[in-house]
Amino acid sequence: MNNGQNTNGGEFLPVMEQFYSIQGEGLNTGKAAFFLRIGGCDVGCSFCDVKESWNPDIFPPVHVDEIVKNIQYEKADAVVITGGEPMLYNLDILCERLKNAGIEIFLETSGSEPYSGDFDWISLSPKAGTSVHECWYDKADEIKVIIEKEADFAYAESLSEKVHDNCTMLLQPEWSVVQTILPLIIVYIKQNPEWRLSLQTHKYINIP
């Protein structure tokens, strides 16, 4: 954890970008939220569409109080914390300040790092070949598996055996192959209705 950044125990975070938009994927698609993208990643997916977020050293640390002020300025009542991999950093302080401000907190994580913070919704998106801390399977509200090739369905099923009964299970086509892989996902979900479809709707409607 901490990825070499001097964050003073989570009081500062290397913020790549912050913006107010609409959640484009997962079960909360369509919800207005402030997006906080934290720099640094220990997974490095080949299909990542924000590879520029991987190196935290190029993003100056931002104090968590400034982050909260930016969210309040937009009058947003929810924040999505994403990356990179945000759990590289201790998020206890950030979550405490957000909770005190009455802001709902959504987390997007691969599960590669230990748990810290306090979240209202956790979207777990493990990647093949990456170790996942077992605690995330118990905490995840949804598990979102990116399907890039047909073999990824078997990986998704291996994860389905680990999550708790109330966890929503989602299959999401990798964007660069969406035209070819989406029909396979639709057939798979019809045959395995415990899964749901997640689409990157923000890309379809061209918003960040």
Explain what this protein looks like in three dimensions.
The protein has 208 residues and is of the alpha/beta class. The protein has a single domain, classed as Alpha-Beta Barrel (TIM Barrel). Helices cover 25% and strands 25% of the residues. It is built from 6 helices and 9 strands, in the order E-E-E-H-E-H-E-E-H-E-H-E-H-E-H. Strands 3-1-2-4-5-6-7-8-9 form a 9-stranded mixed sheet. Helix 5 links the parallel strand 8 and strand 9. Helix 1 (64-73) runs parallel beside helix 2. The radius of gyration is 17 Å and the shape is globular. The mean pLDDT is 94.
SSE blueprint:
Layout: E1 12-22, E2 32-38, E3 61-63, H1 64-73, E4 78-82, H2 92-100, E5 104-109, E6 121-124, H3 135-139, E7 142-147, H4 152-160, E8 168-173, H5 178-191, E9 195-197, H6 201-204
Parallel strand pairs: 2-4, 4-5, 5-6, 6-7, 7-8, 8-9
Antiparallel strand pairs: 1-2, 1-3
Helix pairs in contact: 1-2
Any idea of the CATH class? Alpha Beta
Number of strands: 9
> H/E element string?
EEEHEHEEHEHEHEH
Large-scale geometry: globular
Tally of separate helices: 6
Strand arrangement, major sheet: 3-1-2-4-5-6-7-8-9
Low-confidence stretches: none
